[in-house]
Amino acid sequence: MNARRTDLTQARTPRGFADRGAAELAATRAMADRIRETYELWGFEEVETPFFEYTDALGKFLPDQDRPNAGVFSLQDDDEQWMSLRYDLTAPLARHVAENFQKLAKPYRSYRFGPVFRNEKPGPGRFRQFLQFDADIVGAPSVSADAEMCMMMADALEAVGVKRGDYVIKVNNRKILDGVMEAIGLGGEENAGRRLTVLRAIDKLDRLGPDGVRALLGDGRKDESGDFTKGAGLDEAGAARVLSILEAKRSTNAETAEALAAEFAATPVGAKGATELKAIADLLAAAGYDGRVSVDPSVVRGLEYYTGPVYEAELTFQIAGDDGKPIQFGSVGGGGRYDGLVGRFMAENTPATGFSIGVSRLQAALRALKGETAEASTGPVVVLAFDRDRIGDSMALAARLRAAGIKAEAYLGGSGMKAQMKYADRRKSPCVVIQGSDERDKGEVTLKDLVEGAKAAAAIADRAEWTESRPAQVTVPEARLVEEVQAILARHR
């Protein structure tokens, strides 16, 4: 008897990370292709930046300031410089533009797709690695670029299958809130931390409601678990003034922009924000995007680097929550203008605006919308190894199928026919190819349609009937292999 090994390494996935199987990857690839086509239709070109950036290039705009390492995964290189895994795709773009500024045609329209990393506490649905799909315009100072980003975001959602009416792109301007905070005494660099707390409080409106936001604007809030979050420390009048922004929403974009201008233009920065929003509302109306894109003062975005218009893609349809009650799916992406980010690397600021789509969240939304689970795409045709000493013949048949553009493989394991059929089922193979010595001598192959076979098997009462019917199985001349397999695939496409 062999002794049991005691030196085995435990197989485990790091906390906050996950493996992704064929079904999810196929869905991601299909969705990414549709988004990519939309971006390129609008004249954007793809660029890829490294996973790692020098930590100082990421700057102070980090996603989790409460953790000692500022929310990023970092390491020190052999030259003693610190590098960090990128936490979004925007900061690397700013570095790329600054480094290649003279080479790029400006305005520079680009998109990026790939994983980002957050060194945050993981939890249900909260991962430390996830996919983003970004698009940005760098070098366009006019809010027409912001309006265009909102329009393109709407087109991208429709391209992946979200119907008009099941989403809305909300747009606001951070300058309006900046003007209010200046008016209540939160201007200046010394109040940067409190301003960020205000932003993050309003950003939680959908989840916490007005009362929860009011608590975070004041002394703070204790959640259901008993954890306390310190607030911005505003008095009642200051909190009420901030919350009054949310009351400016009207039935049309033009009316909302006018209400914001009338109520929040007391400071120069607030007046500029209201003027920019009115310009965006006019552009949306002219391009026919009213209803798809909505001026909404509740949108602020939680990152500090936004300097003007901010926008968010929200899905408006309802799904059943864990308790069975209907809930709205919510945000699947957002962005805004960040005119100061590229300027960190250059003598002059460079205007920029862009947005990011949360790929995994959008995929989950599409499955919920269509009532589907993540199904793998059809697997390859499997050529069974009927005679182990003639595996070369099986490989030759598979090669003929591949030459015709059909996914195919020869079975290379050591199991018998029953196990080979189970293997083909698990591979989601549409059909298998069988060629024993009898078929080979006659110049024939037997094709078994596994999809039709499964349907027939469900309707057959006993083994005798199964044996007699041989469902979904046909023997054809070997010369017709490709043609017959193509016919089976066409039946199930």
Automatic annotation (TrEMBL):
PROSITE patterns: AA_TRNA_LIGASE_II
A Pfam family the protein falls into: HGTP_anticodon
Similarity comment: family membership: Belongs to the class-II aminoacyl-tRNA synthetase family.
A single GO molecular function term of this UniProt record: histidine-tRNA ligase activity
EC number: 6.1.1.21
InterPro entries, per the entry: aa-tRNA-synth_II, aa-tRNA-synth_II/BPL/LPL, Anticodon-bd, Anticodon-bd_dom_sf, His-tRNA-ligase, HisRS-like_core, HisRS/HisZ
Assembly mode: Homodimer.
One example of a Gene Ontology biological process annotation: histidyl-tRNA aminoacylation
Protein name according to UniProt: Histidine--tRNA ligase
Transmembrane stretches, start-end: none
